[in-house]
Amino acid sequence: MRDYQWLHEFCLNRFGSAKALEAFLPQPRTAAQLRAMPDDRYLSTLALRVFRAGLKHSLVDAKWPAFEQVFFGFDPEKVVLMSAEHLERLMQDTRIIRHLGKLKSVPRNAQMVLDLAKVHGSFGAFIADWPETDIVGLWKYLAKHGNQLGGLSAPRFLRMVGKDTFVPTEDMAAALIAQKVIDKAPTSQRDLARVQDVFNQWHQQSGRPLCQLSVMLAHTVNH
Is 16 exposed, middle or buried (0-12, 13-18, 19+ CB in 10 A)? Predict the structure, then answer.
C-alpha cells in the first residue's frame, strides 16, 4: 500500500496545482452542523437516496417537491403512521415515482429515525457521534436497521448529509485493487475492514477527512 505522500503528489500532478485540487475536494459537515440538522431533513434525504437508486437523479429530484407534500414534509412522527392502504393510494399519484417497495421504505426508515432519536436525542446526534474510524460500521448499522439502504446507499446517504465517509465507487475500488489492498470490489466485512484501515492510516498521515481521501484516490485511476 502506498502512503499519503504518493496520493498527494499524484493528485497535484493531475490537477495541476494545490489550489485547483483543494477547490475540487468536498468538505464534510462538522459534528455541530450534523446535530443541528432536523430529523425530517434526514428522513427526506434517506428517502431521496432510496428513490435515486437505479434511477436518473434529475428525474427524482424534479419530483421531490411532490414527495415532500405527500409525505407531510417527512415529519417522522407523521410518516410512521402511514398505513399500507395510504401507500397503496399513493401508487395512483402521478406526481411522484410510483414504486411500492420504495414507498414502503419511507415509514420503515421513519421508525428507525424515531428509534434512534429516542436513544440519542436526535437522529443527527446519532450520526454526528459515530466515529469516522469505523464508518463502515455505520454503513452496516443503517443497512441492517433501515430499509433499502444496502450496497452503496448508506455511504451515499452519509455523503449527501455531510457525514465524513469514503464511498467505494468503481474507481475507488479499482485504485485499491491496483495497490493490492483488496482483490475485488469490497463487499465482505474483511475487505471493508481492510479499506477502513487504509483510510484511517491516510487520515492519520494527512489530517484530511475521509471524503477528500476518497475523491483523491478515485482520481488515481486512468480513464
Answer: exposed
Q: Are the CB atoms for 106 and 71 separated by under 8 Å?
A: yes
Same domain, residue pair 130 and 49 = yes
Is 87:95 a contact under the CB 8 Å cutoff? no
Q: What is the tens place of the pLDDT at every residue in 177-206?
A: 998 999 999 999 999 999 999 999 999 999
Q: Are 148 and 106 in contact (CB under 8 A)?
A: no
CA pair distance 155, 137, nearest whole angstrom: 11
Q: Is the pTM of this model over 0.85?
A: yes
Angle between helix 189-206 and 210-218 (nearest 10): 100
Q: How far is CA 182 from the centre of its chain?
A: 22
Same-domain status, 65 and 143 = yes
